[in-house]
Amino acid sequence: MSYRKFTLKNALNLELKETLLLYALRDWGPMGRGSLEKVLGLPEGIVRGLLKRAQMKGWIKAGRAGCSITEEGKDALYKKMERMGISSLARISGECLGIGPSCHGVLIRGAANRIHLGIEQRDAAVRVGAKGAVSLIYLKGKLVMPGICENVDLTMPEVSRAISAFQLQDGDLVIIAFADNVWRAVEGALSAAQSIGFSCSID
Question: Is this prediction's pTM over 0.85?
Fold first, then answer.
């Protein structure tokens, strides 16, 4: 397995990686260390350190089947997502956008006025290994793709259907990250959300 050059200073966003770890264990766990290396996209030694930190905080526990999340870990995940402004994180069907093969979307309540064209969010997703990201805002009953489409409901109804589970409210923002595998899509969506600028502190 190949890795990008790693340094704590410029390659490891601890809050992001911990959120990804807890999310993966909550929805796909338990997992062994080898699987978690693929999830996190990091070398064995760094993953070992992250797991040790998470265990010390009581977020995960190790067993014969691998690592699993605890109730404290689920609470920590909720708080981390809340600090990123994320109300919901879910798999999205990329076929409707002609993107993929893996797509994940985040819903950020009331953040429509925090983006311009979504370029910064796309770049944030790409930096962590996603192929790109698409931003959608919901204003006055219309779903808008900034700089591209003023009424997605009329011109691309399949997109509206794909994100219908988010139950949008006026002023909401949805960011859909797409990648070659599910983990980079999830991390891309998380990174894009983090770029919005909500308060984000390390536990």
Answer: yes
